[in-house]
Design goal:
Length: about 130
């Protein structure tokens, strides 16, 4: 893989999970906690300006989730960044949850609340992209 750096995001209503691919390694980043759409888009825009990834990978829900899909597309339209690549996010949260199976139940619940699970989901999205290219 010749990508120098990629940033993946899993856009949710409460949190935006983030993952970075750099130097051949996929790393979860601190998620963005959404207070509102404007704040969240500005926080993501700032991250893009600091990290300067080659591409932004956006997890996109399947067409049967039309409302959620529309929300994600609207959210990323607020960003000033190209190129943006959409990656199917089907079951990414379930796969991310499997990565927390070793944790005690309370720690898994905490991972859901604090956004760790969202960033692990962004890692899954990034890995899917890497496997597909």
């Amino acid at each position: 893989m010749s990508e120098s750096s990629l940033l993946a995001c899993d856009v949710g209503l409460k949190r935006i999970g983030l993952a970075l691919y750099v130097g051949g390694v996929v790393l979860p980043l601190e998620p963005i906690i959404r207070l509102n759409r404007r704040q969240a888009s500005q926080d993501l825009q700032s991250l893009l300006e600091v990290r300067k990834p080659q591409k932004l990978l956006v997890g996109l829900p399947h067409a049967r989730y039309a409302d959620t899909r529309k929300r994600v597309l609207h959210f990323v339209s607020l960003l000033d960044f190209t190129p943006m690549v959409y990656v199917d996010e089907e079951s990414s949260s379930t796969q991310a949850l499997e990565h927390t199976a070793h944790l005690a139940r309370m720690k898994r619940q905490q991972a859901r609340k604090n956004g760790v699970l969202d960033s692990l989901s962004a890692c899954v999205i990034l890995e899917r992209y890497l496997q597909g290219t």
